[in-house]
């Protein structure tokens, strides 16, 4: 019976590595069990952290509405809009709203312009004495240029009409040489001149000089009659 195998099963020996890691896994098990509780706590603390982060990011002092520009005020008003549609309005209500808005803007413009006028008045008041003195000194200085009368244009032509009272129509003939072809080019133009005594008649050769506007079409005045018509 010594040759019969032993019926008792032998327990296999565990490797040394597994024996070493088993206590460590048992120690980590409670920590893994506590992980859901930690996640729940982190989720609960998330809004507080977000508020702290937002508070630190926007810790700068908030500017008052008066210091903000109009563009910034509109942007903030749009950001606070909830997106709800306004109730339907009649054309009269829209017109009244636009009129009120225009009235408000006009009041703001008047206030700003009044402030600008006051600033200019204060600036003039500060240097008003010096400006008065400078103006008096300038008035005492001799003028740089004496008052002179410009040279008036003089034209010679032939009277083609004297039907109107105290007015003659004069034809001015001109002849010039062409710049490129060197050919004599003749042209004529007419003008109206003032004849106070109705001295010139049709066909006369007269001399006229330019003057101030005497009527809608008269800018010339008769000087003398050079040659009478035959």
SSE layout:
Layout lengths: L15 H42 L12 H10 L11 H36 L1 H13 L13 E8 L5 E11 L6 E11 L10 E6 L7 E10 L3
Parallel strand pairs: 3-5
Antiparallel strand pairs: 1-2, 1-4, 2-3, 4-5
Description:
The chain is an alpha+beta fold and 230 residues long. Among the domains are: 94-124; 154-227, Nucleic acid-binding proteins (OB fold (Dihydrolipoamide Acetyltransferase, E2P)), CATH 2.40.50.140. The protein has helices at residues 16-57, 70-79, 91-126, 128-140; strands at 154-161, 167-177, 184-194, 205-210, 218-227. The chain has a five-stranded mixed barrel with strand order 1-2-3-5-4. The protein is elongated, with a radius of gyration of 53 Å. The termini are far apart.
Q: Report the strand count.
A: 5
CATH architecture of the domain at 154-227: Beta Barrel
Strand order of the largest sheet: 1-2-3-5-4
Instruction: Note poorly predicted spans.
Output: 15-19, 54-61
Oligomer: single chain
Question: Which structural class is indicated by helix and strand composition?
Answer: alpha+beta
Tell me, rounded to a whole number, the average pLDDT. Answer: 76
Shape estimate: elongated
Tags for this model:
OB fold (Dihydrolipoamide Acetyltransferase, E2P); 4 helices; five-stranded mixed beta barrel; 44% helix; 230 residues; alpha+beta
Short description:
With 230 residues, the protein is of the alpha+beta class. 44% of the residues lie in helices and 20% in strands.
């Amino acid at each position: 019976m010594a040759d019969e195998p032993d019926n008792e099963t032998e327990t296999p020996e565990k490797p040394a590595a597994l024996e070493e890691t088993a206590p460590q896994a048992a120690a980590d098990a409670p920590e893994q069990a506590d992980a859901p509780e930690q996640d729940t706590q982190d989720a609960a603390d998330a809004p507080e952290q977000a508020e702290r982060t937002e508070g630190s990011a926007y810790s700068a002092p908030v500017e008052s509405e008066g210091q903000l520009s109009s563009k910034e005020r509109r942007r903030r008003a749009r950001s606070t809009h909830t997106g709800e549609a306004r109730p339907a309005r009649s054309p009269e209500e829209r017109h009244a709203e636009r009129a009120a808005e225009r009235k408000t803007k006009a009041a703001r413009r008047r206030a700003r312009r009044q402030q600008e006028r006051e600033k200019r008045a204060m600036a003039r008041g500060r240097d008003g004495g010096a400006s008065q003195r400078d103006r008096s000194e300038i008035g005492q200085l001799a003028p740089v240029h004496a008052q002179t009368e410009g040279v008036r244009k003089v034209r010679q032509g032939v009277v083609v009409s004297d039907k109107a009272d105290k007015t003659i129509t004069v034809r001015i003939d001109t002849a010039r040489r062409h710049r490129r072809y060197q050919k004599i080019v003749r042209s004529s133009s007419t003008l109206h001149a003032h004849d106070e005594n109705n001295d010139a008649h049709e066909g006369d050769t007269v001399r006229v000089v330019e003057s101030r506007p005497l009527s809608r079409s008269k800018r010339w005045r008769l000087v003398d009659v050079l040659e009478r018509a035959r």
